[in-house]
Design brief:
Radius of gyration: 24 Å
Structural class: alpha/beta
Distance between the termini: 35 Å
Order of helices and strands: EEEHEEEHHHEHEHEEHEHEEHEH
CATH architecture of the largest domain: 3-Layer(aba) Sandwich
CATH class of the largest domain: Alpha Beta
Shape: globular
Number of strands: 14
Number of helices: 10
CATH topology of the largest domain: Rossmann fold
Bound molecules: adenosine-5'-triphosphate, magnesium ion
Helix content: 25-40%
C-alpha cells in the first residue's frame, strides 16, 4: 500500500521582489512511498526537497496536482496525528530541559500525561540522552539537539516519520545509532521519509530513493537499481596470467582493474558464460564474480552534472 502518493504536483512561489518573478519549486512531480520503507529524497540545493516535505506536512500549499497520504486526500488533515517530523535546523525553546521539551511537544501532539511520561523515558533512552534529560537545552551540543529532535519526532508513535537531515552534526557513533534506530523503526512497520545530503548514509539505509533536480523527478528506484552498472561484471581471479591478458583485452574487451581483477561487459548470459568457460579452460581460478556497482554519490554527480 502506498503511504504517500503525489500526482503531477507543482508549486510556484512568487518572488517578493518588484519583478514578481515566479519560481517553479516543484514541476509535475509524481511519486509514491510504500508502507514500511525508508524512502530517501535527494537533490542539490534548491531542488525543491524542503518544499515537497512542507507540502506533504500541510505547512505550505500546492499550486497544482494531487497528494494522498494514507490513501486520503491531503486536505483531510487527520493524517497529521499519525505523522512525526524532525525539521532541518530546528529550534527548541532553550530554557526548557530535554524532558520538558518532549513533554511540551507530546502534549501539542495530543498525548495524555501517562503516555508522555512513558514515551519520554523510552525515547530519551533510545537516543542516548537519558543522562542529559534534566539539563537545559541551551547547553546541548548540535548532535544532542539532533538526538532530542529525533525523540520529539517519534514521541507520538507515528506511522509516518519525516526526517530532514537527521544525522546533521551527529558524531559517527551517533550516526550509526540513528541508522540502527531507523532500521528498527522500519522493522516495526513505520514508514520513514528521509532527506539527507549524506549519500553514503542514504545508500546504507534507504530502500528506495527519488532524485529531484530543479523541481522535477530525474530518477527513482531502489538503491540497488540506481547503483548497478548495466551488464558489467567484476571478476576476481587468483592471477591474470600472460596467456589470459591478451584475449581478455582484445577478444573480450575487458578492463583490467588490478593484478587479479577485471571488469567485463556481457550483453547476454551466454556471453558471460562464454568468458567463464574460457577462464576455466585456461585453468584460471575464479574467486568471485559480482555485478559492478557504482556508489550512489557517483551516480548522483553524473546524473545532476549531465542535466546542468
Ligand atoms: N517561501 C519561498 N518564497 C519564494 N521562493 C522560495 C520559497 N521557498 C523556497 N523557494 C525557492 O524554491 C526553490 C526550492 O527550494 P527548497 O527550499 O525546496 O530547496 P531544497 O531542495 O530544500 O534545497 P536545500 O538542499 O538547499 O535545502 C528554490 O529556488 C528556492 O529559492
Ligand atoms: Mg531544504
Amino acid at each position: 500500500m502506498s503511504v504517500i502518493a503525489t500526482k503531477e504536483l507543482s508549486k510556484e512561489y512568487q518572488s517578493r521582489t518588484f519583478s514578481k518573478e515566479k519560481i517553479l519549486a516543484l514541476n509535475n512531480f509524481t511519486f509514491e512511498v510504500n508502507e514500511g520503507e525508508i524512502f530517501g529524497i535527494l537533490g542539490p540545493n534548491g531542488a525543491g526537497k524542503t518544499t515537497l516535505i512542507k507540502i506533504l506536512l500541510g505547512i505550505t500549499f500546492r499550486t497544482k496536482g494531487n497528494v494522498q497520504i494514507f490513501g486520503k486526500e491531503i486536505d483531510d488533515t487527520s493524517y497529521k496525528f499519525q505523522t512525526g517530523y524532525l525539521p532541518e535546523n530546528h529550534r527548541f525553546p532553550s530554557y526548557l530541559t530535554g524532558e520538558q521539551a518532549l513533554a511540551f511537544y507530546g502534549k501539542l501532539g495530543g498525548m495524555n500525561s501517562v503516555d508522555v511520561k512513558k514515551k519520554t523515558d523510552e525515547y530519551l533512552r533510545i537516543v542516548d540522552m537519558d543522562s542529559w534529560r534534566k539539563t537545559k537545552i541551551k547547553k546541548y551540543s548540535k548532535g544532542m539537539l539532533q538526538r532530542l529532535g529525533l525523540a520529539q519526532a517519534l514521541m507520538n508513535d507515528p506511522k509516518l516519520v519525516f526526517l530532514d537531515e537527521p544525522t546533521d552534526g551527529v558524531d559517527p557513533i551517533g550516526r550509526k545509532q540513528i541508522r540502527d534506530l531507523l532500521t528498527r523503526l522500519r522493522e516495526s512497520g513505520k514508514t520513514i521519509f528521509l532527506n539527507s545530503h549524506l549519500l553514503s548514509e542514504v545508500e546504507l539505509i534507504c530502500d528506495r530513493v527519488a532524485i529531484l533536480n530543479k523541481g522535477g523527478l530525474v530518477a527513482s528506484g531502489s538503491v540497488e537499481e540506481l547503483t548497478s552498472v548495466a551488464d558489467s561484471y567484476r571478476f576476481s581471479v587468483s592471477a591474470i596470467a600472460d596467456d589470459l591478458m591478451q584475449p581478455l583485452l582484445n577478444t573480450y574487451k575487458a578492463v583490467i582493474k588490478g593484478p587479479n581483477e577485471f571488469t567485463y561487459k556481457a550483453g547476454t548470459a551466454e556471453e558471460l558464460n562464454g568468458l567463464i568457460d574460457f577462464l576455466r579452460q585456461k585453468k584460471a581460478m575464479i574467486l568471485q564474480i559480482e555485478k559492478e556497482k557504482n556508489t550512489l554519490e557517483n551516480m548522483f554527480i553524473n546524473l545532476i552534472g549531465s542535466q546542468d
